[in-house]
Design a protein that fits this description.
238 residues; alpha/beta; 7-stranded mixed β-sheet
């Protein structure tokens, strides 16, 4: 009972920080017009991320990209809401200090989530091999890092080794061609299965092509229960 009461109190604390961020914005933003609104994951999508991770019973989550911290707070709320013995939130963001002024990390600390979170201020291409060598086994991942195709592809490549079989990978900006194309390779060739219903109630937009089809901003993919190792001749165009 004492453990559940402590978890409930912590979740309420995180909810309050999330609410303040969504309503008033961060204490500092970059010198671009409406930068917070443009960069941050909208509140209703954050709610969906939280609810999906709670439904997954996720205890260990790895997140690529911290920025202003809205999605990280949602992940943290999910982790402290389930009364886990050892919740763990691994965050990767090489620019949190120099580009984002530590705003996202400071918000996590104000919500008490630094108790369960670890920030790696390295490129994901450098951080993931170390995490794999250390034996990290995550239940789920949230990806909102670089949107260059080769960077996104590399994040997915490593997450295939980090997220457990049958686990979930959630991606932001899934409507953007570079992100969508990278994800499609893993669908076609490596058995990732899109979960279209999970974010159907979230933000929809067109991406980089104003004449294109409207798509959910976030998308989730279920990894196969047995990870395939296809041969070179099995390659399917994507």
């Amino acid at each position: 009972m004492q453990t559940s009461m402590k978890a409930d109190h912590h979740a309420l604390r995180v909810q309050e920080v999330r609410r303040q961020l969504a309503r008033g914005g961060p204490a500092w933003t970059r010198a671009f017009d409406d930068d917070f609104e443009y960069i941050t994951l909208p509140e209703r999508d954050c709610d969906l991320v939280r609810d999906v991770l709670i439904a997954e019973h996720a205890e260990t989550v790895v997140e690529v990209g911290l920025a202003y911290g809205s999605s990280a707070l949602a992940v943290g709320e999910a982790l402290v809401s389930r009364y886990h013995d050892t919740p763990q939130h691994i965050l990767i963001d090489p620019y949190q200090k120099e580009m984002w002024g530590n705003v996202g990390w400071d918000l996590l600390c104000s919500a008490g989530l630094d108790q369960i979170a670890t920030l790696l201020q390295d490129r994901s291409s450098d951080a993931f091999p170390r995490l794999i060598a250390e034996g990290l086994n995550a239940d789920a991942a949230f990806v909102d890092g670089s949107h260059l195709f080769h960077d996104v592809f590399l994040d997915f490549y490593y997450l295939r080794q980090v997220v457990k079989p049958g686990g979930l990978v959630i991606i932001d900006d899934a409507d953007k061609p570079s992100v969508r194309t990278a994800a499609h390779y893993f669908e076609v060739n490596l058995g990732w299965t899109a979960q279209p219903d999970l974010f159907a109630a979230g933000t929809w937009r067109v991406g980089n092509d104003p004449s294109g089809e409207s798509r959910p901003r976030c998308q989730a993919f279920r990894l196969p229960d047995v990870l395939p190792e296809p041969r070179s001749g099995d390659f399917l165009p994507f």
